[in-house]
Structures are given as C-alpha cells and as structure tokens.
Design brief:
Blueprint (H helix, E strand, L loop, with lengths): L5 H8 L3 H10 L2 H6 L1 H10 L3 H15 L11 H15 L10
Helix pairs in contact: 2-6, 4-5, 5-6
Length: about 100
C-alpha cells in the first residue's frame, strides 16, 4: 500500500506524462491545495517538470490577491499553464512561452 492519499495514488499509477497531465487537469483545485506536497513528490519522482510548473501556477493563482472587484489579477499566466498541460494531456508537444 502506498503512503500517498488515495486520490494521489491515481497519479502514482500514471505511467506517462500524458496520463499525469490528464490527472492534474481533472483533479479538484481543493485536492491540489490539500495534497500539494504529495502531488509535488509524485511529479518529482516522475521527472515531470512541466507538471510541477503547472502545479505551481495553479497554486499561485489560487493564493494570489484579487482585484478590488474580486476578479483575478493574472489570467494570462494561468491560462498559459493550463494550455500547456492540455496539450500534453492530448499527446501534443507543449508550447513554451515565446513559441
């Protein structure tokens, strides 16, 4: 039995970056917050650096201050991170900033 929480076990079972990307995009944001250290560890063990960058982007987006009207301050950054992860989940090469 794994030492990781059950939901993170599904990430541990992923054999490819494509599967890991799908898991990251589908899991709840509350799970990313709650199990951040476990998720980060699984991504590190898999050498999925773009997955770690995505996790950092999502968590930063969730933790950032919002504008006076309650809206987010950085939509471009999170949309770029989500777009890269979506490309990986679809089996396409990620587009990096400036590409």
């Amino acid at each position: 039995m794994s030492a990781f929480p059950p939901a993170v076990d599904q990430l541990e079972d992923a054999a490819t970056d494509q599967q890991r990307a799908r898991w990251l995009l589908r899991c709840s944001l509350s799970l990313l917050l709650r199990d951040e250290s476990h998720i980060r560890r699984r991504l590190q063990l898999a050498n999925f650096h773009l997955g770690i960058a995505y996790l950092d982007a999502e968590l930063s987006f969730l933790r950032n201050m919002r504008r006076d009207d309650g809206g987010p301050t950085d939509l471009i950054g999170i949309e770029a991170a989500r777009g890269r992860m979506d490309r990986i989940a679809c089996g396409l090469p990620p587009r990096h900033m400036g590409a």
